[in-house]
Design goal:
- The protein is built from three helices and no strands.
- It is mainly α.
- The longest helix is centred in the first third of the chain and has 40 residues.
- It is elongated and about 75 Å long.
Length: about 80
Amino acid sequence: MSADKENARRVIDRATEAVRDATEAVRTTSESIAGAIEAGRQPGGVLDQLTRLTRDAPLRSLMIAFLAGFIIAYRR
């Protein structure tokens, strides 16, 4: 039974290490994405410009653009 316990410990150790590696990868990716979003929100950034355009666009123009996109997509 000693060999079985040793094998079980090895499996658990490998699984624990895999979970730690996955956790680190998720943390690193989350930080990277958060940094990109924050950079885009800075004045003049892409997200800042998109936000301003969305606020400034008249509803009629958005409706026309939506209908034009729908018509073009429907024909394909």
